[in-house]
Design brief:
Blueprint (H helix, E strand, L loop, with lengths): L3 H5 L5 H13 L4 H12 L15 E8 L4 H9 L8 E7 L3 E8 L3 E11 L8 E14 L2 E5 L10 E8 L3 E6 L11 E6 L11
Antiparallel strand pairs: 1-2, 1-9, 2-3, 3-4, 4-5, 5-6, 5-7, 7-8, 8-9
Helix pairs in contact: 2-3
Length: 202
């Protein structure tokens, strides 16, 4: 499991700035403070053309998302219910498919599948284009419940900019999407470590 000592072992200033970001997330600092740490990190050298780089592929656990993101808004609603509900989110990315998984209370699993490809018109090589088509699946315990994806989003394509990428960490920002309610949302993902539960040991 990666911890702050692992981050500090990276070449400066990358290790220092990654450690500062993870510390800000662990201590639940404000969104403004965390985004400031993200901006510092994004000044460091990232993978070349991250949207086209093999380092983008694999399993990623969400460690933080900005307040306007769908996941943060869901988490905010869950925090208001009288019983504590644990949740976590992850992504599995291949060269052509994206699967976003949200788990609730260890019983409910929501999976959104979509196509993904680099935006070859983007000279920076940072933009990925996500969907359509989309598929939406709900699992209640052992039972799978396929559901239609909301029609207002069914044909919309998401532009996601990869702000920072290396083997361990990915920072991305959402562009236009549907009614653009999530445009500008920022996500910090950490690569899944074998045997490491979601959202544990930042």
């Amino acid at each position: 499991v990666l911890d702050v000592l692992d981050w500090a072992a990276m070449e400066a200033p990358l290790g220092e700035r990654t450690g500062a970001l993870m510390a800000a997330v662990r201590s639940n600092q404000t969104a403004a403070a965390i985004e400031e740490r993200i901006n510092d990190l994004c000044d460091c050298e990232s993978a070349l053309k991250p949207a086209q780089n093999e380092a983008l592929l694999g399993d990623w656990d969400l460690v933080w998302s900005s307040p306007g993101s769908d996941y943060s808004r869901l988490r905010s609603k869950l925090d208001k219910v009288p019983v504590a509900v644990e949740s976590c989110s992850s992504q599995h990315l291949t060269a052509s498919q994206s699967a976003t998984v949200v788990q609730l209370a260890g019983v409910v699993t929501i999976t959104i599948n979509a196509t993904i490809e680099p935006d070859l018109k983007d000279a920076s090589g940072r933009r990925t284009l996500v969907g359509p088509p989309y598929t939406f699946n709900l699992r209640l315990g052992p039972a799978d419940v396929p559901l239609p994806f909301p029609s207002e989003f069914g044909q919309e394509r998401t532009c996601v900019e990869q702000l920072f990428l290396n083997h361990h960490l990915r920072v991305s920002r959402v562009g236009a999407y549907g009614e653009r309610t999530t445009a500008g949302s920022i996500f910090v993902h950490r690569r899944r470590q074998e045997g490491c539960p979601l959202m544990k040991s930042l």
